[in-house]
Amino acid sequence: MLTSRLAFAGRISNSPRTGLNILANQDPFTRFAGFGGVSTVCGKFTAMATWAQVVAFSRPLILPADAQGSEADRSVTYRVMSSLPVILWDIVERKRRVVPMRWGFPHPADWRRPQPIHARAETIETTKAFAQAFADGQRGIVLMKTFNEAPDVDGPTIQHTITPGEEQAVAAAFVWRRFQQADMPAPMFACVLVTVPANRLIATLPTDRMPAFLAPEDWDIWLGERQADMEQVKACLKTMEGVRWTMAKEDARAKRGKPTASDPTGLF
Fold it and tell me: Residue 123 is part of which domain span?
């Protein structure tokens, strides 16, 4: 059971499916390639509160203006509905950018409800909610330091934290879209986490899903920096095996900090 908590280091407008050559004088949100029941898989992870570690993992990278000279890096927990720092490929400037997006697509009946929050890799190119975004290059990366899973069994949710060994962070695959509904105060950019079958460690919980983590050599294909067909892009989404990860039960007595403007997590 992916319980969606992640830890990571961490404006856009719609374009038609064939309109990837977006004009430079458009709104900055339109300049990224491919605009166009909540799962119980990972819904929580940890990352860095500032942008410094994102830069270290993703050079060259254009940072938001307010990211310069920010506070020292610290671990922050992100949950569903948090604003995630998503790494994208800017096709106009030919550079990577970090764009804040809500975790969870808006429910058609109520945009305030996040549903879905995950996309299965096996059907990502055929499921209506994700197919166009996947094909149009609306694909991003979020860096995670740890992530949470829970056993897929009846009863209280027992969170387990998975730490990716000696790696400072791992790159999780996301797809994103721009949404605009009648009662929204402004267009929303939202993303969902791509999932794959669980590896041997996580399957012992038991659960059958985990985040799709990208190999370093697959970043440019997934983001759209390097030309590739859809089969090559989908091939980036695979279960990560043969890794020295650790998994530990979370202390249920630990209290979550109160959300603040600088640390808006802990909402779920």
Answer: 2-249
pTM of the full structure: 0.76
- Give how far Cα 200 sits from Cα of 29, 64, 81, 119, 241, Å: 40, 39, 29, 21, 7
The phi and psi torsions of 107 (rounded to 5 degrees) equal -65, 140
Question: H/E element holding 134?
Answer: helix 128-136
Please check whether residue 159 is in contact with residue 5, taking contact to mean a CB–CB distance below 8 angstroms: yes
- Cβ 209 vs Cβ 123: under 8 Å: no
User: Looking at the 3D structure of the chain, how many domains does it have?
Assistant: 1
Domain-embedded: residue 216: yes
**Cβ count within 10 A of residue 188:** 16
pLDDT in tens, 63-86: 444 444 444 456 788 999 999 999
Contact 62, 23 (CB under 8 A): no
Beta-sheet strands, E only, within 56-144 = 61-62, 75-79, 83-90, 95-103, 106-107, 110-114, 118-120, 139-144
pLDDT-flagged residues of the chain (< 70)? 1-74, 252-268
CB atoms under 10 Å from CB of 68, counted, come to 8
